[in-house]
Amino acid sequence: MRPVYVLGVGMTKFGKYIEKSLKELSFEATWNAIHDSGVRPSEVEMAFFANAYAGLITGQESIRGQTVFREIGLMGIPIFNIENACASGSSAFHLAHLAVASGKVEVALALGAEKLFCGDLNKSLHALSTSSDLEIEGRMGMLFAGIYSMRVRNHMERYGVTREQLAKVAVKNHDHGALNPYAQYRNRVSVDEVLESRMIADPITLLMTCPMGDGAAAVIVGSEDVLSRIKQPAVRVAATVLQTAKISTIGDRSIVERTAKEAYDEAGIGPKEVSVAEVHDAVAPVELLLYEQLGFCKPGESGHWIDEGVTWIGGSLPVNPSGGLSSKGHPAGATGLAQITELVWHLRGEAGERQTEPIPKVALAENGGGNVAGETAAVAVHILVRE
Amino acid sequence: MKEWVPEVPDTLGVNQGEIRLIGSECPLCRRVYFPARKICPDCLDDNRPMKTKILSDSGRIYSFSVAQVAPPGFKVPHVQAYVDLEEGVRLFTLLVKYGDVKKLRAGLPVKLVIGEVGENDEGKKRLNYCFRPIFEED
Question: Chains A, B: CB contacts under 8 A, how many?
Answer without folding.
Answer: 94
